[in-house]
Write a structure and sequence with these properties.
This protein is mostly helical. It has one domain: MFS general substrate transporter like domains (Growth Hormone, Chain: A). The chain has 16 helices and no strands. α15 crosses α16.
Length: 440
């Protein structure tokens, strides 16, 4: 059943309610005074949020190092852009299959214990990559299997972690928590991606994987000493199909959320060049493993560059319009990157522009989703979010690798950026009320 409205959660409209009324649900009164806010960093005074944040920050950097290592190792073994695209496919399939199950589990069980178990499993998987690489028995089949199992584990980790965050900070600090989390997580992508290429060159692939293993122990330690509020028993989901259907009914009653998530899905499905960055670094830009690390980090560098502005981004009055414009900007930058043939700095600049646009989209999209979802539904709605936000780029890696294999890497990237822009315009045409969305 959909939750009854209260002062701390948004009203859930009927599935048959007109779109215009739903937009009105989200709208902030134009006469509402702007409240003065302190530094966004005040959210770090919340002990448990800070523990989760710093632990996840270090773990995310290790994960990005592993991402670079896996892509480099697969390309070394195969020299095939299609093989690189398959990495995204084997990540996307379990995300699409298990994410909704992960969301139900996150709403039904102790979220803190779930995070401890999931991060332990992911550490073991990284250790297997390290051991098989060190013993020279690694092959593409082993890599794909570990990536597949890691994606299954992540299908449970992402909705669980996302559902925890709003319980650790006051509602009025949610915008600050989302903005700071996104900025500094992007910073880990910069450090992890850029360092990944250099670490491979300095300490070899096996030790690169061991570094990722070590970072998991940091986040496990942080979670272990956290205190996480539990969903009251009377509101906790019962694991099963009924809970899953309740989540789907809630999403159907909020078509604006679905439209926002669709925008991000199309942007990353058509417009993500990540799978082809090894090809660009070796065959087009001729910059090697170190150059690959720079390209991998460039989108995050662009995102981090907006760090001083995240507070203002979070206070943009028409968040729906901001999301749409940001994704169009992403598509334009991807097209420019696709045509670029060097120097490395210019190509990295285009990717940085795409990252800046993506940061705007992420902050505004996060506010719309988190601020309109009651706590007892956050696991399931975060799971749907994961299917769109994470499944999109993973399927996009397969799509871009496949197109590059049949046509060319340049055609794949350029056509993907154009398709991203067209898809955005189509979603806005189908849901024009999206452009008026505002949340308190």
């Amino acid at each position: 059943m959909t939750p009854r409205p209260n002062e701390n959660s948004p009203v859930t409209p009927s599935p048959d309610e007109p779109l215009g009324n739903i937009v009105g649900e989200f709208a902030t009164s134009p006469t509402e005074p702007n409240r003065r806010r302190g530094s966004a960093w005040r959210v770090m005074r919340n002990r448990d949020y800070a523990l989760l944040f710093w632990g996840q920050l270090i773990s995310a950097a290790g994960t990005q190092i592993q991402v670079v290592a896996v892509a480099w190792q697969v390309y070394e073994l195969t020299k095939s852009p299609v093989a690189l695209g398959i990495i995204g496919l084997v990540q996307a399939i379990p995300r699409l299959i298990f994410s909704l199950v992960g969301g139900v589990v996150a709403d039904a069980y102790d979220r803190r214990r779930l995070l401890l178990a999931i991060n332990g499993i992911m550490a073991v998987l990284s250790a297997i990559l390290a051991i098989t690489t060190a013993r020279h028995v690694i092959n593409v089949g082993i890599i794909y299997t570990i990536v597949l199992l890691g994606a299954v584990a992540s299908s449970f980790e992402f909705p669980t972690r996302q559902a925890i965050i709003p319980t650790l900070v006051p509602r009025e600090q949610m915008a600050d928590a989302l903005s700071i989390s996104m900025v500094l997580m992007q910073l880990t992508f910069v450090v992890g991606s850029a360092a990944g290429g250099f670490i491979i060159a300095w300490v070899n692939l096996a030790n690169t994987y061991w570094i990722d293993v070590a970072t998991y122990f940091v986040v496990i330690g942080s979670i272990f000493i956290m205190t996480v509020p539990r969903v009251p028993a009377e509101k906790r989901a019962q694991a099963g199909v009924g809970a899953l259907m309740d989540g789907m009914r809630f999403l159907r009653a909020h078509p604006i959320i679905l439209a926002v998530l669709s925008l991000d899905f199309f942007a990353t499905f058509f417009g993500s060049p990540r799978a082809l960055l090894p090809v660009y670094s070796v065959s087009i830009l001729h910059v090697g493993a170190a150059g690959l690390g720079i390209l991998q980090a460039s989108t995050s560098i662009g995102a981090v560059a907006l760090a001083p502005l995240t507070g203002r981004i979070g206070r943009i009055p028409q968040q729906g319009l901001g999301v749409a414009l940001a994704i169009v900007g992403w598509g334009i930058c991807i097209v420019a990157f696709g045509f670029s043939t060097g120097p490395l700095l210019l190509s990295a600049l285009f990717l940085a522009g795409a990252g800046a646009a993506d940061m705007v989209s992420m902050v505004l999209r996060g506010l719309i989703v988190q601020m309109t979802t009651p706590d007892e539904f956050r696991g399931r709605i975060s799971a749907v979010n994961a299917m769109f936000v994470i499944g999109g780029p993973m399927l996009g890696q397969f799509e871009s690798g496949l197109v590059a294999g049949f046509a060319s890497p340049v055609f794949s990237v350029v056509s993907g950026g154009i398709a991203c822009i067209v898809a955005t315009l189509a979603v806005v045409a189908l849901a024009p009320g999206l452009l008026q969305v505002r949340v308190k």
